[in-house]
Amino acid sequence: MLNRRDFLIGGSIIAGTSLLSGCSKSQFEDKSININRNKKVKMKLATSWPDNFPIMGTGVSNFANRVREVSGGSIDIEVYGKNRLVPALAVFDVASSGGIDIFHSGPYYWKGKNPAISIFGGVPFGMTFTENMSWFKNGGGYDLWREIYDRYNLYPLLGGNTGPQMGGWFRKKIDSIDDLKGLKMRIPGLGGELFSRLGVNPILLPAGDIFTALERGTIDASEWVGPALDMKMGFHKVAKYYYSGWTEPASVLELTFNKQSWQKLSKEQQIMIKLVSNEMNTDMLYNFQSENAIALEKLSQNRDVQISAFPDDVIATAKIEYSKLIDQFVSENSDFAKVWKSYSKFLEQNRDWSGLSSRNYLNARD
Amino acid sequence: MLNRRDFLIGGSIIAGTSLLSGCSKSQFEDKSININRNKKVKMKLATSWPDNFPIMGTGVSNFANRVREVSGGSIDIEVYGKNRLVPALAVFDVASSGGIDIFHSGPYYWKGKNPAISIFGGVPFGMTFTENMSWFKNGGGYDLWREIYDRYNLYPLLGGNTGPQMGGWFRKKIDSIDDLKGLKMRIPGLGGELFSRLGVNPILLPAGDIFTALERGTIDASEWVGPALDMKMGFHKVAKYYYSGWTEPASVLELTFNKQSWQKLSKEQQIMIKLVSNEMNTDMLYNFQSENAIALEKLSQNRDVQISAFPDDVIATAKIEYSKLIDQFVSENSDFAKVWKSYSKFLEQNRDWSGLSSRNYLNARD
After folding, report:
1. What pLDDT score does A3 carry?
2. What span, in angstroms and rounded, lies between the C-alpha atoms of B125 and A255?
3. Do A39 and B32 touch (CB under 8 A)?
């Protein structure tokens, strides 16, 4: 850090009083400003989460309120939670065709449309929050995302982040990779594909059925999000072993506009929305951090639950299998190859710095 | 993570077409809005950094431009770099008395006024960026900061973050704590106080003199910031050993207003400035991340430079000494005791979650 003396370089200190003679009080002029370009706008936003879903659902309501506040009421966004206006996972298509103006969801869900999109949502063994945001901003990530979404008549903004997610709940202890063989685990997406290569049978189950399936032993394990949301599901009551994760190190949520709806906004309105989406992006991360910390503290008081990392051989094998999976996507899809080239280059460049700074620091501190 | 099937719970999917019949296109009305409250405002901002100082100086210019943009020109902030209008470290007092409206600096520099303020700037073995921001937002940190600054007629906002800083450059290898004894090291502040307890003689030197002192052996070591800014100083040319840090895990920069200047802004203007300060806060962090990664990549190609963590006994002893130092501040200053109680409670609560999530993740990934 710079120190006090650093400020004395290159010239003697000018006496405060003489200096301030030229420093008048700020001027608050009385002319009011008529921002003609800020037409009154009403927009419909549909989300993939229930209205009051912790952190994510409430985060979207806060976003709409904040936009109303900062725009002096000129931008009025009506929020429709999961299935109220549009089916939860139809939001992408409906916004694309102009049926709604905005949706809030995760790029994670659109890999069926184009596997490259899943990279924008975060990948196993991928970037941390800070790395990922730096890639969007300084590594070309945002440009690539905009380029691909443009084909769907959409304009994406960052809309939240879960931070690191947990690996999941297991009924039996996992001492080595052999213990995973044949286990029935509720785990969707790329994580599921990866675990299937480790011998697990990935199962898809609706959220409301997981607890009972885990309790009855119909499934042996389930992945969900992190301590705060997992404890609301009650998993700790029916599974004793809780493992930290590497499938979702910093899942990105999105606030995506129909392109024409975006373009109809004035320049100031667009900036207001970008600024509020940035606030939502970080607020959700900060809320996940503190809520997970509180939940984990409670969970740790439960002596029946054992919390740890997966054994080394599970992690090592998962890395190898993940690398093969990526090679397959790269060879099959040119968009994936293009986005992956940018993403992996940035990750390699940032891996050493994050290791030297964040990783060394956490290892030293704790 | 929630999966696709989770969205089908609690009711069948409504056919997209029938659903959308009630979903009209957004309405862009033509009434223009006259936001009378948004008076045209001119403000003077003085910083503690040169105008074009990388990341920090340019970040403040970006802030002023962004405020101008989002306010449709209604808020015009003139930025004065280091010593142009106010001596670099007089900005706190001058803003306090109303000579300027805003300053950009770091709480780090005001511990002489009140040691409690240094906690808001970040402390050795303290919180990471995400933990620290969560504390400000959800752990009462912001309220405590506002309460103390209010006594100085100031209103603080977050204005940037360096992320983790490095421990410093050494001319000789440090194999154990004994190698620190008697070394002359340029290191200011709390870090210097801590290193003096490890046997180092902390030296204060103006920035422009450090390189030559290190080259000639007048000093044996120097702390600065991180790879990006350190390489601009040329330290790698005259010191071979570069150690990762624990004195400044996430230094907070501030954007602080004279209280009357803040109160004269309309509610919308205040929110605009809060939103842009949040953008500046994260943008600087993201820029430090990517710039440090690029610099470290270059530095790693230099085979003369050895980069590592400090030996374990240095870290262990530093922790013990730091704890004694904190106890001393707590017993001497009631403000410090009050802020530390909140800070340390939040850190303890978040330490386990960060270990289980971020630390386990980085150790698994890399």
Report:
1. 64
2. 36
3. yes
Same domain, B322 and B221: yes
pLDDT at position B8: 45
The count of other CB atoms within 10 Å of the CB of residue A181 is 10
Compute the radius of gyration of chain A from its Cα atoms. 24
Q: The domain that contains A215 carries what CATH number?
A: 3.40.190.10
Q: Which residues pair with B256 in a beta bridge?
A: B103, B156
Check: CB of residue A28 under 8 Å from CB of residue B264.
yes
Query: Residues A17, A52: contact at Cβ < 8 Å?
Result: no
A139 touches B: beta carbon within 8 Å: yes
Nearest CA in chain A to B3: A188
Instruction: State the residue range of the domain holding B218.
Output: 166-247+303-333
In a domain? residue A18: no
CB atoms A33 and B73 under 8 Å? yes
A248 at interface of B, judged by CB pairs closer than 8 A: yes
**Inter-chain CB proximity A20 and B94 less than 8 Å:** yes
The reply to whether A197 and A329 lie within a common domain is yes
Helix (H, G, I), strand (E, B) or coil at A22: coil
Total domain count for chain B? 2
A268 Rama sector, left if φ>0, alpha if ψ -120 to 50, beta otherwise: alpha
Residues B131-169 pLDDT 10s:
999 999 999 999 999 999 999 999 999 999 999 999 999
| Any B CB within 8 A of A37 CB | yes
State the CB neighbour count (10 A cutoff) for residue B81: 20
Here the ipTM equals 0.91
Asked if the model's pLDDT at residue B4 lies above 90, the reply is no
The predicted-structure confidence for B297-324, as pLDDT tens digits, reads as follows 999 999 999 999 999 999 999 999 999 9
pLDDT tens, position by position, B13-49: 333 333 333 333 343 433 444 444 468 999 999 999 9
Domain annotation covers residue A110 = yes
Give yes or no for A193 touching B (CB within 8 A).
Answer: no
Residues B97 and B183 in one domain: no
Contact A129 B130 (CB under 8 A): yes
Kindly report the CATH number assigned to the domain that includes residue A129: 3.40.190.170
**How crowded is residue A337: how many other Cβ atoms within 10 Å of its Cβ?**
14
Asked if residue B154 lies in contact with residue B282, where contact means CB atoms within 8 angstroms, the answer is: no
Task: Tell me, yes or no, if B30 comes closer than 8 A to chain A by beta carbon.
Answer: yes
Read off the pLDDT band of B190 (50, 70, 90). confident
Are B54 and B125 found together in one domain? Answer: yes
For position A188, what pLDDT does the model report? 87
User: Quick one: pLDDT at residue B189?
Assistant: 83
Residues A283, B27: C-beta atoms closer than 8 Å? no
Residues B95 and B64 in one domain: yes
Same domain, A280 and A329: no
Residues A273 and A139 in one domain: yes
A353 touches B at CB < 8 Å? yes
User: Per the CB < 8 Å rule, is B27 touching A9?
Assistant: no
Query: Do residues B191 and B217 both lie within one domain?
Result: yes
Locate the chain A residue with the closest alpha carbon to B23.
Answer: A99
CA distance B331 to chain A (A): 24
Give the dihedral sign, CA A146/A148/A150/A155: negative
| Residue B278 touches partner A, C-beta closer than 8 Å | yes
Portion 284-313 of A in contact with B at CB < 8 A: 285-287, 289-290, 292-294, 296-297, 300, 307, 309-310
User: Are A364 and B7 a contacting pair at CB < 8 A?
Assistant: no
